[in-house]
C-alpha cells in the first residue's frame, strides 16, 4: 500500500473511529443524564413526601431536567476535550515537553545523541521532508514516539536507553517506524484521541472530587444534601471511568493495527528486517523493557514504539501487540530468545567518545550512479523511501561543507543560511542585497552570513532544499517577533532585483509552512473539479526551464496526457504568474489523497518532456510537491 492509499485509508479510518467515539460519548451522556435526572427526581420526591416541597411526588423522570443535565454533561466533555486540545495545540513539542524530553537538534551532548540526530536527518532528507525536532527522554527503557498534529509540527522522541543500547542499524529501524507514523496520518489521530478521552475522563475526575467532598460532610440537617452529592459523585465516577475504559478499548484496538503497519513500513524503508527486529528483541532482553517513568506516560501510551506502561487486562487494553508477535511477523525464523542487554543508568549521559565516527555517520561504501533522474520514480517513493534514497541522503550529509552544516544547527546560522540562499549569483547584485540587509540584522547574523557566502556559492543546486530541511528545527526556535522580522528580510531580498523568481517564492512558502505550521483541512476535491488550478500550475511549470514557447507548449501537452480531462491551451505567461499560483496551490492541497498522484505525474511529465531534468526543475518539482503535502524523496539516477 503506497503513501496516497495509506493517507486515504487513514482519512476513512479516522472517520470510522470518530463515529465510534461519538457513539461512545453519546451513550455516556445519555446514561449519565438519565442517572443524574433520576437521582434529582428521587431527591425531589423525597423532599415532597416530607412536606418540604409543594406538589405531589412523581416517580417519572422529568424530561426537561434530564435535558438540562445532558447539556451540562455535554458541556463538561466538550470543555475537557477543548482544554486538552488547547494544551496540545503546539503539536509534538507540547507532548515531548510533557514527557520530560530535552531538545537536542541544536546541542547534542555526546556521540550517541549526534548519531541519533544524524539518523533522523538521513531519514528526513531521504523522505524529502524537513527535519523534525528530536527530544531525548532520560529513561533507561528502550522506547520512542512520534507526535504532532501535522508533519510540520512533528517531533521524534526517544529514550536514553534506546540511543545507548541500540546499534546504528537498529536505531534506524526504530526511526523509520516513527517516520511511518508521521507519513501515514497516525500522529494526528493519536493526538485527537488524547483530547477526546480527556473530556470523558473529566466526568470521572469530577465524580471523584464530589465523593471526597461528601465523605467529609457531617451528619446534620443537611444529611439529604450530602446523600445527593454522594449519589451524583458515585454516578459520575462510575460512568466517567467506564467511558474512559471503553474509549481506551477503541484506542488500543486501533493502535495495535497501526503498529503492525509501521513495522512493515520500517522494513521497506531500511530493507533490513533485522534492524527493527533487533530493536524489539533488545526490549525483551532489557532490564527496564520499554517502560517510561514520566508522570504523564499513561496519557500518551498509544503513541510509543513499544508499550510504555504496565497494563492490567493486557489483552484488551494493550496498545501494542506482544513483542513476540511483532518479531515473528518480521523474522519468521526467530528462535524465541531475547539477548541480554546491559543495564544503564537512566540519568547518566553516555560517555563522550564511546562511538566511532563510522557508527555515528554510518558506512558509505555504496554510492549510487547519478545519471539522468526520474521524477516519476520519486513520486512512487513518496512516503516510502527506499535504501538508495537513504544512501543518497547519507552521502549528501557527509559531503556537506562543515561550515554550512554547523550553521544549520544554530538559530543565527540558520537565519544567515536563508539570507545566503537568496543572494544573487552576480557579485554586484548580491553586494546590493547585503547592503540593504545589513541595518536590519544583528552583528552575529551578519558575521555568519559573510562567513557562509563562499561555501554557499559552491553549494550544488540540488542541495538547496536539503540544507533548508536541516535548518528547519533551528528556525522553529525563533520567537514570533524574530520570525516576523526574518520574513520581512526575506521579502526584501527577493524583491531587491525588481522581480520575484519562482524558486525564491517557493523557498519562502516552505519556510512559512514549516515554521508557522498549517491548519489541517479536510480533503474534499477530485482533480477534475480543480481543472483551472491545474492549468495554472502546469503552465507555469512548463516555462520553468527557461525554454521557448514551442518547447513550453510541448511540455504542457505531455503533462496533459497524464490527466483524466482536457487541459486546453497553455496559459499566457501573465495569466500563470505567482499571483495566480498561490491560490491555485492552496486549493490543490485540498485534493483527496488518491487524486494527488495524477497531478504529480503530470508535473513530472512536464519537466521530463525533453528527456532530462536540470537541478532547478528538480528543486521546483520537490518544492511544489511539499506545498501539496507530498514529500518527494531525492530524484535518484537511472542506472545504465
From TrEMBL:
Alphabetical UniProt keywords: Cell membrane, Hydrolase, Membrane, Metal-binding, Metalloprotease, Protease, Transmembrane, Transmembrane helix, Zinc
Can you provide one Gene Ontology molecular function annotated for this UniProt record?
metal ion binding
Question: Which superkingdom does the taxonomy of this entry point to?
Answer: Bacteria
Q: Which Gene3D superfamilies match?
A: Metalloproteases ('zincins'), catalytic domain
Species: Pseudomonas guineae
- Single GO biological process annotation from the record: proteolysis
Q: Which cofactor does it need?
A: Zn(2+)
- Which InterPro entries does this entry report, sorted A to Z? HtpX_protease (IPR050083), Peptidase_M48 (IPR001915)
Regions that span the bilayer = 20-43, 63-83, 193-211, 226-250
Write down what this protein is called: Zn-dependent protease with chaperone function
Do you know which Pfam families this protein is assigned to? Peptidase_M48 (PF01435)
Every copy of the Peptidase M48 domain together lies at: 111-330
Quick check: keyword Disulfide bond in the entry?
A: no
Amino acid at each position: 500500500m503506497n503513501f496516497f492509499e495509506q493517507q486515504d485509508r487513514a482519512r476513512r479510518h479516522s472517520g470510522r473511529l470518530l463515529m465510534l467515539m461519538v457513539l461512545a460519548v453519546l451513550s455516556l451522556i445519555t446514561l449519565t443524564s438519565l442517572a443524574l435526572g433520576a437521582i434529582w427526581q428521587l431527591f425531589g420526591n423525597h423532599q415532597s413526601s416530607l412536606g418540604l416541597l409543594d406538589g405531589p411526588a412523581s416517580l417519572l423522570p422529568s424530561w426537561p431536567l434530564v435535558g438540562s443535565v445532558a447539556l451540562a454533561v455535554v458541556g463538561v466533555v466538550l470543555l475537557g476535550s477543548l482544554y486538552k486540545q488547547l494544551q496540545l495545540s503546539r503539536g509534538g513539542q507540547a507532548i515531548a515537553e510533557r514527557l520530560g524530553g530535552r531538545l537536542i537538534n541544536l546541542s547534542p551532548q555526546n556521540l550517541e545523541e549526534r548519531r541519533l540526530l544524524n539518523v533522523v536527518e538521513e531519514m528526513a532528507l531521504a523522505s524529502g521532508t524537513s527535519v523534525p525536532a528530536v527530544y531525548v527522554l532520560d529513561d533507561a527503557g528502550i522506547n520512542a514516539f512520534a507526535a504532532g498534529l501535522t508533519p510540520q509540527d512533528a517531533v521524534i522522541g526517544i529514550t536514553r536507553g534506546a540511543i545507548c543500547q541500540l546499534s546504528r542499524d537498529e536505531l534506524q529501524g526504530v526511526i523509520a517506524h516513527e517516520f511511518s507514523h508521521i507519513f501515514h496520518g497516525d500522529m494526528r489521530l493519536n493526538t485527537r484521541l488524547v483530547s477526546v478521552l480527556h473530556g470523558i475522563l473529566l466526568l470521572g475526575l469530577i465524580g471523584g472530587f464530589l465523593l471526597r467532598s461528601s465523605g467529609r460532610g457531617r451528619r446534620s440537617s443537611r444529611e439529604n444534601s450530602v446523600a445527593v452529592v454522594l449519589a451524583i459523585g458515585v454516578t459520575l465516577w462510575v460512568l466517567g471511568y467506564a467511558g474512559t475504559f471503553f474509549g481506551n478499548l477503541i484506542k488500543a484496538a486501533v493502535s495495535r493495527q497501526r503498529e503492525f503497519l509501521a513495522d512493515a513500513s520500517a522494513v521497506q524503508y531500511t530493507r533490513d528486517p533485522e534492524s527493527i527486529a533487533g530493536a524489539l528483541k533488545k526490549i525483551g532482553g532489557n532490564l527496564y523493557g520499554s517502560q517510561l517513568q514520566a508522570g504523564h506516560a499513561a496519557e500518551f501510551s498509544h503513541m510509543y514504539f513499544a508499550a510504555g506502561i504496565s497494563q492490567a487486562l493486557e489483552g484488551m487494553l494493550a496498545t501494542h501487540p506482544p513483542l513476540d508477535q511483532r518479531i515473528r511477523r518480521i523474522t519468521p525464523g526467530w528462535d524465541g530468545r531475547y539477548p541480554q542487554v546491559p543495564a544503564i543508568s537512566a540519568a547518566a549521559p553516555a560517555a563522550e567518545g564511546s562511538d566511532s565516527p563510522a557508527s555515528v555517520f554510518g558506512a558509505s561504501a555504496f554510492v549510487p550512479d547519478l545519471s539522468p533522474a526520474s521524477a516519476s520514480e520519486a513520486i512512487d517513493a513518496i512516503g516510502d523511501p527506499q535504501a538508495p534514497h537513504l544512501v543518497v541522503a547519507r552521502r549528501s550529509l557527509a559531503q556537506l561543507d562543515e561550515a554550512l552544516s554547523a550553521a544549520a544547527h544554530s538559530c543565527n546560522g540558520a537565519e544567515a543560511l536563508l539570507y545566503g540562499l537568496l543572494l544573487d549569483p552576480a557579485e554586484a547584485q548580491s553586494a546590493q542585497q547585503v547592503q540593504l540587509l545589513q541595518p536590519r540584522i544583528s552583528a552575529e547574523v551578519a558575521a555568519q552570513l559573510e562567513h557562509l557566502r563562499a561555501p554557499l556559492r559552491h553549494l550544488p543546486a540540488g542541495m538547496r532544499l536539503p540544507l533548508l530541511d536541516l535548518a528547519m528545527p533551528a528556525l522553529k526556535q525563533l520567537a514570533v517577533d524574530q520570525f516576523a522580522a526574518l520574513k520581512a528580510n526575506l521579502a526584501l531580498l527577493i524583491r531587491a532585483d525588481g522581480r520575484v523568481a519562482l524558486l525564491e517564492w517557493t523557498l519562502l512558502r516552505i519556510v512559512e509552512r514549516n515554521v508557522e505550521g498549517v491548519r489541517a483541512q479536510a480533503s474534499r476535491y477530485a482533480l477534475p473539479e480543480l481543472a483551472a488550478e491545474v492549468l495554472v500550475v502546469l503552465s507555469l511549470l512548463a516555462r520553468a526551464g527557461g525554454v521557448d514557447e514551442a518547447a513550453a507548449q510541448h511540455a504542457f501537452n505531455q503533462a496533459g496526457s497524464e490527466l483524466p480531462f482536457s487541459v486546453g491551451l497553455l496559459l499566457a505567461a501573465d495569466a500563470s504568474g505567482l499571483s495566480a499560483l498561490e491560490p491555485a496551490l492552496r486549493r490543490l492541497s485540498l485534493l483527496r489523497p488518491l487524486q494527488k498522484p495524477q497531478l504529480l505525474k503530470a508535473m513530472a511529465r512536464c519537466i521530463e518532456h525533453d528527456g532530462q531534468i536540470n537541478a532547478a526543475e528538480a528543486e521546483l518539482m520537490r518544492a511544489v510537491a511539499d506545498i501539496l503535502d507530498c514529500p518527494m524523496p531525492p530524484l535518484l539516477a537511472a542506472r545504465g
